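Quick entry between incubations.
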Amino acid sequence: MFECALIQGELFRKLIASVQDLVQDGNFMCDANGISLQGMDSSHVALVALALKKEGFVEYRCDRDVTLGINFANLAKMLKCMGAKDRLSIRAQDEGDSASFVFESEDSSRVSNFELKLMQIDQEQLGVPETQYKAVIRMPSSEFQRICKDLSAIGDTVSISVTKEAVKFSVGGDIGSGDMSLRQSESGDVDGDDSEKVMIELEEPVQQNFALRYLNNFTKATALSKTVTLSLGTDMPLVTEYKMDNLGSIRYYLAPKIDE
Amino acid sequence: HIFQINIVLFFSTK
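Done. Structure below.
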């Protein structure tokens, strides 16, 4: 028997919205520690990895490891029926072919029950090694979203280059070219919210090219976190990570573009 | 010309 409950069901809806345009369906792997999900886009350029810790749930019970094969578009249809402040409970039997989703309003005056049919998904799981990245940037997620959206009107590819002082996003296209640089926030600045700062940890300057179409897709997760962390290395995937306070994180890996 | 790499090249299959 698998059972979990989230006070803010809305968070789960946002999570599904953050993966469903990239990956059609996937296996929720539930064990005693939490829930994880991994999926690749159809052209195998991007990988999304979701990790939810049991501590983030108000209730969590997993007697035996279960795999829930879920079609995200179908799940999203059911989650649409959930109220913005509803509590969400998910239940599944060990060998069942469906999972139940219960939405309950704050004052318990409205309870909705949905039963989602599960799928058998034969999906290869990739092993993502722990890597030391050459540059790690933490910045406001809304700022990253705006940059990706605005630059994609000019070109398809963004070049991200990082130095100790700044991170630069450059684009070129038929109409011309441009770049936007964000300077590392002053370390002595004790005023203001940390989540509004730009922090750069650098081992070595890096520059890599990425498809803006995918980065724009990743920014669907902006609603989940005030900040986003970008980790870059040479000739390795970019990691775009959104951390949710104590619930866990969603990470997107994007393979770089290289000169042929 | 810029060429997009396949991500499977970077990560091994479990």
